[in-house]
Design a protein that fits this description.
It is built from no helices and 17 strands. The chain is mainly β. It folds into 2 domains: 1-100, no CATH class; 129-234, no CATH class. It has a 6-stranded parallel beta barrel with strand order 7-8-10-12-11-9.
Length: 234
Amino acid sequence: MSKRDLKIFGSGNSGGGEFDKATIRGEGTVTDDVRCQSFKVYGTSVAMGSVETNSFDIYGTVEVHKNIHSDTIKIFGTMNASGDVEYNNMKIRGTADIGGNVTGEDINVKGSISVKGDCEAETFLVDGSFDISGLLNAGKIDIELKYGRSTVKEIGGEEIQIKRKSSFLGFNKQNGNLGVNTMEGDQIYVEYTKASVIRGKKVEIGPGCEIDLVEYNEQFSCAQNSSVKKQIKI
C-alpha cells in the first residue's frame, strides 16, 4: 500500500509521520518527526521534529527544530536547523545556520553557512562566507572569501585553497578574510588569513596573511605583504 502525501497549501498545520511526498506551498508547520521520499517547501515552513528524506528542497525559508537526514539538500533561501545534518550532496544558494554537526560528502555554498559543531565532507566549496565553531575536515577545500570575516577553529584536509573573491570583472577584490587557529593539509594555499599554526607538505602563503608558525615538509613560500613569525622545515 502506497503512503499518502503531506500537502499544505496556503496556511496550515500537520502532524508528523511517514509520507510519500511532503509539499508545503505557502506557510506550514509540521508538529512532529517526518519520514518521506521528498520534502519540498515553496514559502515558509517549520518542522518541529526531525526530517528524514531522500531529497530536501527549500525555495524560501525552513526551520527544523531537530535533525535533518537527506541524500540531497538544496537550499534556495534560508535554512535553520537546530540539530545535526547528514547528507550526501548539499547545495546552498543563500544562508544555512546549523546548530549541531554536519556530516556527508559534497557541500557547495554560494552565500553563507554557519555550523555550531564540526563539519565533515569530501569536498567543501564556498563562494561567500562561513563560520564553523569546531573542526572543518574535508579532502578538498576550496574557499573564495567574499564579504566580512569567516572563522573556523581548525581545518584539516588534503588540498586546501583559500582566496579572496575577485569582484565583478576582476578590477578589485572584496574584503573577505579568515580567522583560524590551526590548519593542516598536504597542499595549502591561503590569502587574507590570520592563523596560529599552519602545517603541510607544501605551504604557500599568499597576500594579506598573518601567521604565527608554519611547519612544512617539502616547500614553503610567502608573499611580501604577508607576515610569518616563524617557519620550520620538519
